Amino acid sequence: MLVYDVIIVGTGIAGLNSAINIPKEKKVLILCKENSWDCNTFYAQGGISVAVDENDVESHVQDTLNAGAGLCDEKAVRIMCSEGRDAVNSLIKRGFEFDKDEKGNLLYTKEAAHSRNRIVHAGGDATGREMHLFLMQNNPHPLMYKTTVVKILFKDDRVFGVKVYHQGEFKNIYAKNIILASGGIGSLYEFHTNARTISADIQGLALECGCELRDMEMTQFHPTVFVSMEKARKQLLSESLRGEGALVVNKKGERFLFGYDKRGELSPRDIVSRAIFDYKQKHKGEIVYLSFENFEKKFFKHRFPTIYYNLKGLGFNLPEDKVPISPAFHYMMGGIKCDIDGKVSRFKNLYVVGEVANTRVHGANRLASNSLLEGLVFSKRAVDKILFNEQDFFIENFDEEKEVLFKQNDKTLKNRLRALMWEKVGIIREKDGLQEALHRVEEMLKLDIGKLLRLRLLTSKEIIKSALKREKSLGAHYIKE
Ligand SMILES: Cc1cc2nc3c(=O)[nH]c(=O)nc-3n(C[C@H](O)[C@H](O)[C@H](O)COP(=O)(O)OP(=O)(O)OC[C@H]3O[C@@H](n4cnc5c(N)ncnc54)[C@H](O)[C@@H]3O)c2cc1C
After folding, report:
1. Would the CB of 162 count as within 6 Å of ligand 1?
2. Predicted local distance difference test score (pLDDT) of residue 383
């Protein structure tokens, strides 16, 4: 029987950076649901935060802790900010090119709640796409596309592999170690910025095999998203636009954010999200815009080419036109609880890295552009741990029974769940609304449904239960008292 040394689930930054750090002699298999680029990493625009020099590490730590509102694990934060410099330098040494000025110096930009410019970027606003391509080109291991993990095979305190659904068939794949790098939960919400593959099924599977999810109430909403479009994934207007001068204005062109926070456009994203949400509610749904009046066209096109062309395709002429914006779900701070090497305590050989993991590095609110960094730093740590800690492996056989993944009414119920999560478990929460949401999710779980919807519901239930438990607002979790 073929047994891999490591199975990696996910082809985002966390999965692929795990892969490139495992020697090619090892037997590694990488799995992803659709195409490799169908992941949040591919869509990351703004960049990756990194301490500018050794002296800046402490300030990066403090900015991260401040954004995290007291819920961060300081040790994890210190690891991310200090090892982040090596992680980014190691990409540069391998040949990755961040944007530079004419003299060849790295260009650092600023994003909300960073006390200085420390975000490096590539391809202007195409950092994620450039990194994804680079990591794919440097990956020495085989990759199986269009493969959905539908079960984690485990017995007692060991995992033995995964059951996958691939080209209409179920198959067990065995491995000595598993790294889950399957990303967040975007498509649980009606409005979100995430890739279509990001649907919280792995979090549901983790619950099924007894792993703990932590901080699941900490869901981050991005303030500046163009939501009036057909696709499930809505068009994000990067934080760095505001960092470099874009303004949030009402229909008369007036800036109103200073009425909510003295930092105006540079307030942390949860404050800006709630301000826009509140402003729209108080002004009968008045449209709020992002204005680019401070930008010169040539600079805008060069600095934000992806946004420029994506919005051109949607009929906007930037920077002249204002774009209507609304907040949308963006990032999950909570996840499968793990230690600073990504290890899940429930099992001897299961690791989680990237957005699916919860090291508490983001606490109650993620500082902008810290997630790509988290993916780089903690995937390397997990791999080092696996390579250093080789364990005896014995084989267990598991059945290859079919799972019923979908049932007839699932699509309708899935959309109902999305609307429910948006309305009752969204930007501003109320205890009654959360209780109603919990009740409705529990009722849906009693219906005759397929496994994938069941997994979404299990994860949603965990988010709602965590939100109910936290009775006072903190960070991204805002509850009306
Ligand atoms: C529009 C957008 C812009 C962003 N901009 C930035 C930014 O500028 N800077 C920053 O730091 N962060 C940014 N973020 C956040 C950041 O991109 C993500 O947090 C990060 O890329 C997550 O990486 P990951 O490797 O954990 O997961 P992802 O990149 O999301 O990859 C998840 C992978 O898991 C696979 N998968 C999921 N479930 C299964 C399953 N059941 N079976 C098999 N495979 C599965 C998927 O197919 C995919 O390959 C942005 C996010 C979005 C959505």
Report:
1. no
2. 98
